[in-house]
Write a structure and sequence with these properties.
The chain is α/β, with parallel strands linked by helices and 253 residues long. The chain contains nine helices and eight strands. It has one domain: 3-Layer(aba) Sandwich (Rossmann fold), CATH 3.40.50. Keywords: Signal.
Length: 253
Amino acid sequence: MTAIRRLLMLCLGWVLFSAQAALAAQGEVVARPYGTVPGMNYGYWEYLPLGYDDAPTEEFPLVVFLHGVGEAGNGNATNLEKIMNRRAPPRLARDGRDFPFILVSPQRFNAFIQVAEIDAIIEFAKVHYRVDPKRIYLTGISAGAIQTWAYAAVHYDKLAAVVPIAGNGNGVNLCPAAASGLPVWAFHGTADGTVSPYGSINAVNAMNTTCSPKANPAALLTLYTGVGHDSWGRTYDGSAGHDVYTWMLGYSL
C-alpha cells in the first residue's frame, strides 16, 4: 500500500468515526470543554434531540440553561461536572430523559453571566446548530435566573418564553418584555433564604399590574410553600406537577 493510499484510508476512517460519533450524540448529553468548539467562549453541555441527524434540514427548538453560583467553573471537563450536581435539564438528560429540543448549558467562572454574553451564546448556537430562531427559550436557577430576567428585559424579541427559578427580577425594567407578550413562568420557594421570593413575586406583579400595557399572556408565578432555595429540582423533573417543557414549547415568536 502506497503512502498516499494509507493516508486516504486513514482520512476515510476518521470521517466514518466522526460521523458515528455525531450520530451517537443524539439523545445524549455531551461535554464540550472550554477551547474545544470554535466560536464558543465557554465550556458547555450539549444535548441534541433524537432524530437530529436523521432530519438534516429540520430546525429544532433551543433551550439555554444558566447555572447558579455553586456550579461556576472554568469550563474544563472536571468543572463541567459541577452542573450535573443539580437536578436540572443537563442532569435529567444524563439520567435518560429525552427532550425534543437542543440544550446548551454553558459554564462560567462567575455565575452572573452578562446579558451580552448570553446573547453571544444564543447567536453561537444559531450558527453551530440547526436552531429554529422562533423557538428559543431561556431558563436558569438562582444567579442564572437573575440573569434570565436581565436578558429577557433587553432581548425579549429573541425569546419565545422564559422560566426563571429562584431568581430576582426586581432590578430590571420588564415593561418592554410585558408589552412584547413574552411568556414568563417564574418559580420560587417561600422559605428561600438565599434569594428572597419577592424577587419573583414583585417581578411577576410588575409585569401583570404595573406595566402598561400589562403582560399578555399574563406572567405566571408558582410558589412552593415552605421550600427553600432549591425550588428547581421539583420544577425541572416534573415531580411538583408542572411540565415547563411542554409549556415553553407551546410558544413561538
